[in-house]
Structure formats: C-alpha cells, structure tokens
Amino acid sequence: MWRTQGLNMLLFLVSSLSKWNFSAVIAEGIAPPKRILFPPEKICMVWQQRQRAGAGLFNVGNTCFLNSVLQCLTYTPPLANYLLSREHSRACHQQGFCMMCIMEAHVNKALHSPVGAILPLAVLKVFRRKSGQEDAHDFLCCTVNAMQRACLSASNDLDLSSQSTTIVYQIFGGFLRSRVTCFSCEAISDSYEAFLDVPLDIKVRGFAVKIPWWHGHFGGGLGAFQHRALCLVSRCKKNVAASKRFTVHRAPKILTVCLKRFDCFTGGKISKVVEYPEYLDLRPYMSQADGEPLPYSLYAVLVHSGVSCHGGHYFCYTKASNGLWYQMDDESVELRCIDTALRQQAYLLFYVSEAPGQGLEPSRAARGISWVLTDFSVSAFSPPAVVCFYTL
C-alpha cells in the first residue's frame, strides 16, 4: 500500500520503540487502572499563557508535512500547557531518545522565540528520511505514539487501563463501546476498544459532504448495522440475526478527525468538498446519551494542497492562545479569520473539549448531525487502536 511504502519516517528510531499495545479489546467492561501515571486533575484545558502566535517553521525540503503537524500539536492547549511547564524534562530519567523531551524543547522554542521563524531541529534530528513528501496523518500518529511510549518508559508490565492514564492518552485517547444484541435470545455483549483519532471515509455520493457526521436512523448511536453472526453470548450457539452498535464510551479531551483524502490503492486525491463546523456536541453519540452536552470547539485545521499523496503541500490554520486564528505555512504566520479556516480542503481536524469541569464554559449549541455510519474496523494504515468509520 502507498501509505506503508511511503512512511519513511517510521525509521526514526522506531527500532527503539516497542508497539503501543492499545489494539487489544477489553472484554465485558473497562477494568479500573491499577496505577494512575498522571493525575487527571492536573491537565489544564485552557491556556495558562496568552500571547499571539509563535514562530513559523523553516522548510528544509519537503518537510511541510512535519511543520504543519508540529504547529497543530503546539497549539493543542492541554499538551502545550504541560510542555511549557517543563514538568516532564525535570522528572525524565530516560536514556537517549525521548519524544516528550523533544516536543517540550520544540514547543517552548516555537512559542517563546523572538524571531519570525525557526528550524525545528530537535524534531528533524530524530528522523532519517528520503527527500520525498510524506503523509501528515502518518507523522501525527507516529509522533503521538512516540510521546505515549516516552510516558511509559519508566513503567513495566502495566495493565491496559493503567497505560491509558498517561498525560498523552488522557489528552488524545478515548474508548469506544461495541454492543452486539442477539435478535433470537436478546442477549447483549459489550466490548471496549481504545482509539486515538477518527479516520473518516469521505467517499460518499454527491459533490459535498457535511459534518458533524454521527447521526441517523440508527437511534442516535455512532452507528449500527444488522448482520448474521454466531451468538456466543447465549444459548443460541448458531448463526442468528444480530445488531451491532458503536458508541463513544469515554470521550477524548482532544478529538482528532482524519478525512481520508487519499485513495488507498492509487494515492490519488479525493477533492470532495467537506463542510465542518466550528462547534459540535458529542453527547448524542455517547454510551450514556442522556446528560449535559459535551461541546467541542475547533482549534486547528491541517490542509493538503495538491492532486495526490505523492506530492503537493501541507499547511494549517491554528487558534492561538489569544483566541485569534492564524494561517501557518512553513515560515509564514499570517492572521486569518475563522471563516477562512472553515472553508478549506481539510485533511485533519482538531477539536478541544469544552465540557464543564475542564475549566471552560460551554460554547454555543452544536449544529445538527447529518451523517450515518454503517461499519467499523481498525485501520490497517494507522497505529494500534485507531478507529475507522465508514459512511454510506
């Protein structure tokens, strides 16, 4: 596949990183963690320092994919707050490569630099890559996995639930519930799976697609479908009709959506117009759909310009700590309005939770939801435990 062939950046010390094993399904409920690696009450969702946008990033030859991802991560409020505090480096005893230390150095330099543009040297040093263009989503997944691995470096033999208590997973990660209901004996089987982002298939009919995307005639869940399955949770023990429904069981603090713009076989660009909102509400798609709204607001949009994954250009729009939007195109940082950020051919969308109790006031009501989900699987091209949704 083109994405695995093109992922040269996986060479960046990947031999020293063991797989982050979040792909395992937790059967019959999420067990409580045996250890809490980072206290959740210490995660601050609002900016602790307010200032204009920081420095741009020099392109040293087809590194726009890296620059745009770094800028989106730099303006992720809970991650930036933690990295700006330098808490990690003060406590880190890891020998050699540590992605959290590297990101901490980069974010502090980018946001505090007196010059207009800097070279992201700390990140570039850990990559061995060819001169061709790389995929921004692959680099994002690789970076987040490396940060997670760094947070786990001092802990051995942790259970799955304890691994999800790192600051990285508490920021980016969530859990999905899969519920299978047997139509014959009415038995119910629940399983839970971790996810870090939501790859969304945009190969749907029509010229334009509108999101928020989780809704429909499936009763408000993330999606459901009927199929014939072997009923293993009851006395049936035979192929019977069953339904399968997916809901968000634990919502992430940062919701990352990847619009699947590239054909898996040819690498060609899918240039479909996709409308995305500034605000959305995740509550109707939770396992517990009743309750207060779970509002999210957009804070970064990563854009690909070009006709295929093999070339083109990446840049992004980010919302800085002063509440203003900026277009970040390598070394260029220009003030823009939110309407411009909402009219892009987006590839990656970043939403931050504004749920009460996280230091934020709920924003305006989210728009209506218009997409129907019909299937679910783990992506073959994404890191472990990334959730894929397929639309009609």
UniProtKB/TrEMBL annotation:
This is Ubiquitin carboxyl-terminal hydrolase. The lineage of its organism: Eukaryota, Metazoa, Chordata, Craniata, Vertebrata. Residues 55-354 form the USP domain. Its EC number is 3.4.19.12. It comes from Serinus canaria. GO terms for molecular function: cysteine-type deubiquitinase activity. It catalyses: Thiol-dependent hydrolysis of ester, thioester, amide, peptide and isopeptide bonds formed by the C-terminal Gly of ubiquitin (a 76-residue protein attached to proteins as an intracellular targeting signal). GO terms for biological process: protein deubiquitination; proteolysis; regulation of apoptotic process. Gene3D superfamilies: Cysteine proteinases.
